[in-house]
Every structure is written in structure tokens, then in C-alpha cells.
Target: DUF7330 domain-containing protein
Amino acid sequence: MSAPTFDYTYPSKREDAGWSDAQTPLLPGAHPAVAEDRRKIRIRRICHFFFAFTLFVLVIHVLSDTVRIQTSRALGFDFKAMADPEWSIPEGVSIVDCPAWEFGEHSDVGTVSFNFALPAAELFALARGPRSHGTIQIRQSDGETDDVRVNVEMHSDAHGGFDHAKVCLSKRKDEDDSVGVGIFTDHWWDNHHHRGHNHHIHFVVELVLPKHNEVLHITKLTTDMPIFTHNVDELADAVSFDSFNLHTTNAAIHTGSVHTVHGVVRTSNAAIDGVYVADENIALRTSNGRIAASASAIRADIRTSNGHIEGEYSASRELVLLTHNGPINAAVALANDPDGPPTEVDMTTSNSKIRVNLNLTSTKGSSGSFVVGARSSNAGLALEFTDAPLDAALQLNAHTSMGSADVRLHQTYEGSFTASTSHSRVQVQMGDGEDQGRGRKSISVTRHTGSYVEGIVGWSDLGASRGTAHVSTKMGPVSLWV
Ligand SMILES: *[C@@H]1O[C@H](CO)[C@@H](O)[C@H](O)[C@H]1NC(C)=O
Model:
């Protein structure tokens, strides 16, 4: 059910009518003086008409507003409050019901709860308004149940505050099979700081998912709740999402574990952590905050700025680890299907270290192709390829400046390599590669100055043409194991 709206085209139509009246030509053949009198009368009439009309429009406006409120009150909905732009209901969302707060023994804690069947298309939670902040916990029910349960607690040290906050059952206007919970606070709060106690208002939201004895399938879960810390339980074994979307700002997102096909987890100025298993894509995004997670997907996109990236990341098609002014400290696993395109990882930061272990695997046991990029500046870079299949093709570009570049390729690496720096030394060492059952790899260095080394390594000419590895820094030593 959506709030009624005014038809504002009505007054403008009437104004058009009045205007065309004023354009009516004078009757022909009248005496000039009489015509002048008539003109005055006509102008006065028009003025009267406009005055009466304006009054009429005003009265209709006020009356219909009153009638509307009376009607909606009688129906049990406070439509006036919800239609008011003060409540910042987002576009595309319609309000279904906003039950009254219930109070227990503490008048500073109000609660509202909902129970509803899991919607087929989308389950969502959203928050808007100047004092809408707090925490949301997403967990599964302890006992078996078919229903979703949402519990909302509002803590306010100003009792009047409960008139200026609402929790409403909502819907997407374009999706009948959606159910959401909306938390709204109005702008009354802007003028009622209550001597600095305004921070003592917060919401505690609990979203309790149904539970059956088999894995629960949820098509889509969305939160859009700025300044709500998100706590997600360990759900990966019990719930499978097609689409898992968490969005907040200025608040952290902690996820025990989650399993989804697609996932987008976004905040700002705060950390993201947790275990994210995606069958297709996962994106973890924040800024000015740390990402410390474990994420695996076909494509994984991990981005922050002014914060660390750490944890374990795996992808079979593409992995991005991107930050600025924050170190990247991670274990990366790439799995490539040799019959498909290469698997790529791009690791970028600035003014901070990169220290990453990479484990490359092939879905066919051997070969596969991998594209690895690592770039920083003003800091050291250390990559270690712990494992890679025989006959794999690696294209590596690893560059930094004002720090050391330290790259240890896998025992099975075959291909060309360059290592370069300025104002410092390059050292190239060869692992023996012997325990791979092919004997010792052969290495040939084709160019060697103190700060630049170029060469080829492999078991065969074919192998030696497979990979390329470029490692460089400026004003720092390079060491490369091939
Ligand atoms: C690399 O990954 C494979 C497959 O997951 C695993 O069996 C192997 O132990 C890993 N190697 C290292 C050095 O972690």
C-alpha cells in the first residue's frame, strides 16, 4: 500500500481556464466610454475570480490533507508522518506498516518485531534519517522455523524520541515478492540535541533467518543501512545466497562466514573482515579502513584506501587487491583452467609494503596460464610463489621504488626474466628445480650489469619461451630466485 499523493495538475488547469477568459475579445460595436466601464468591470471580475480560486485551492488543499490524515488514522496508519519528506523514504520503497513502539519496564528502550515468510525475490533492511545508527546482527534461528523474524530495539534517553523514529515493514515498489524492514528517524532530532545526549540514541537490529534441516536458500539479501555495524554469523554451511549485499558507511562489517553466488560488501571509514565464499563474484569495498578477510570466487575484487589488505584470497579468473597508503599482506591462490583464459591477479598499493605468497594451481593438474601484477612505491615488495604446476605460463610484473624487491619464483618456473634497479644491486639466484622429476633446469644469463640482469631459465626451449618475469625497483636492492 502506498501513501496517497496530491494531483497538483488540478490548480494549474484552472489557472489556464482563468487566463483564456481574460483573452475573450470585447463585444463589437459598443460606445467607447461604456466599453471602458465594461473593461474595468471585467478586470475586477477576473481579479475576484483569481482571489476566489486561490482561496478555493487552499481550502481544498487543507481539507484534503485533514481528511487524508483522519482516514489514514482511522485505518491505523500514520500516513502523514510517512509521506512527509522529513522521513526520507527512499525512492522505490513503499511502506506497508509501522507498528507502535512497545515498552517493557524501561521507558528508554522501545521494541518492534516482525515475523513474515521468507520472500521469494528479496529480503532487505534499510535505514534513513539523522539518528539512524546502531548495529545489525544477521543470524539463523536457533530452532526450526519457516519465518523470518526481525527484532528492532531503539534505545533513546529522550522519551519524546520515540515519536520521531519508526520501524516499518516495507516493500520494493517494483517487486511484489520482496519484504524489508525500514528504520527511519526524522529531522526533529536535528533540533533536539538534549544537551549533548543526542549520541545516546541507537538501534539494535536482529535479522533472524529461517531454519530447516536442509541448507536454506535465499535469493537475495540486501542491507542499506548507513552507520550500522554489521555482524553476520557463521552462515556458510547453513544458508546459501544467490545474492548477498551489505551496505553501510562509517561502520565495520564482520562476517563469520557466508556462501553466495554473488556478493557485494561495502562500507567506508571502517573495516571489513570475515569469510566470503562466492560461486561467481565477490566485492569487498571500503576506504580508510582495513580489509582482513578470506574470500574466494571466480572474480574477487578487494578494495580500500589508507588501510591494510590482509588475509587469504583465491580466484579462478580475476583477483584485485587494491589499496593506497596501506600494506598488502596476503596469501593468494589462483586456479586456472588451461583450456580457458589466463587467471589474473593485480595487487596495487602506494607508500606501503606488499608481502604476498602465491600458490598457482591448474584445474587439469599441469600447465595453465597466470598473469600476476604487483605494484607499490616507496616501500619494499616481497612475492613468493610457493607452488605452481609444471608447464604453467606465468607473466609477472612486479615493480616498486625506494625499497627492496624480493621475488622468489616457483621451482617450476620456465621463461625469461629481467631484474633491474637503480643505484643499487641486483642478485639473481637459481633454485635447483630438481625435485620436479626433470633434473636441473638450465639458466642462461644474457645480460648482466650490476643493476640489471636478464636471462632465460627452463628445462627446454619450449619451456623457456613460456613465461616472462619482470622485477624492478629504484633505489633499492633486487633479489630474484628463478
Ligand atoms: C597450493 O594449493 C594446493 C591446492 O589447493 C594445495 O594442495 C597445496 O598444498 C598448496 N601449496 C602450498 C605451498 O600452500
Helices lie at 9-22, 32-75, 79-83, 461-464.
